[in-house]
Amino acid sequence: MDTLTTKQRKVLKFIETKSEADGAPPTYREIADHLGVSVGSAQTHVEGLRRKGLLLNRPTGAARPLARRLILRTRSPGRRIPILGRVPAGPLAQAFELSEDSITLDPACLPSGQVFGLQVRGDSMIEAGILENDIVIVRVQAAADPGDIVVARIGDDATVKRLVKSRDRYHLKPENPSYDPIPADDAEILGKVVGLFRKL
């Protein structure tokens, strides 16, 4: 889906609220009054939502005002993912800072099982496309295969790295040549990184 503009998000939220409260979407005039814009501008924002597939035409008679003929596309309920805190993608540091944040993602984008999010700090995984302040989506599991990007704990510290095997030994490998691999002999795998969420 294309990114929504700020006004389109406000229109969509207003349509959702009014549809739930009144059993029908608002008129263009109501949308315009809500946004403080002209009816023509309201029509433009609604048409943008229709083009992006978020509004559909209701198969009703032409006598119904055009805005009233628009219905919300049915969407799957989102799955709320807890953000446990921050995890270093750099030198090891104190494990997880507590967080009360969460994000909601489409369940179709998530694997089965328990998942959580961790906000990344540091730049040791930049060549894997994981940047500072990204949120990695982690599936809870105690084992991983070589090549997997994992969240691992060593003592009281945790980090996100790629698990690699060399000469029968495992290492946690950064994806940045400025950092050295970390021996994984005493590492505890907390989970496998299965996704990435980035705010633009």
Radius of gyration over C-alpha positions, nearest whole angstrom: 23 Å
Count of discrete domains: 2
User: Please, what is the average pLDDT?
Assistant: 79
The CATH homology group name of the largest domain: Umud Fragment, subunit A
Provide the succession of SSEs.
HHHEEEEEEEEEEEE
* Low-pLDDT windows of residues: 59-65
This entry's quaternary arrangement is single chain
Query: Which CATH C-level class of the largest domain is it?
Result: Mainly Beta
Our measurement of the CA-to-CA distance between the termini, rounded to an integer number of angstroms, reads 15 Å
Main structural class: alpha+beta
Describe the structure in your own words.
Helix 1 packs across helix 3 (39-51) and helix 2 (28-35) crosses helix 3. The protein is α+β, with helices and mostly antiparallel strands and 200 residues long. The chain folds into 2 domains: 6-72, Orthogonal Bundle (Arc Repressor Mutant, subunit A), CATH 1.10.10.10; 79-197, Ribbon (Umud Fragment, subunit A). It is built from 3 helices and 12 strands; from the N terminus they run H-H-H-E-E-E-E-E-E-E-E-E-E-E-E. Strands 3, 4, 5, 6, 7, 8, 9, 10, 11 and 12 form a 10-stranded mixed beta sheet that branches. The chain has a two-stranded antiparallel ribbon with strand order 1-2. 19% of the residues lie in helices and 34% in strands.
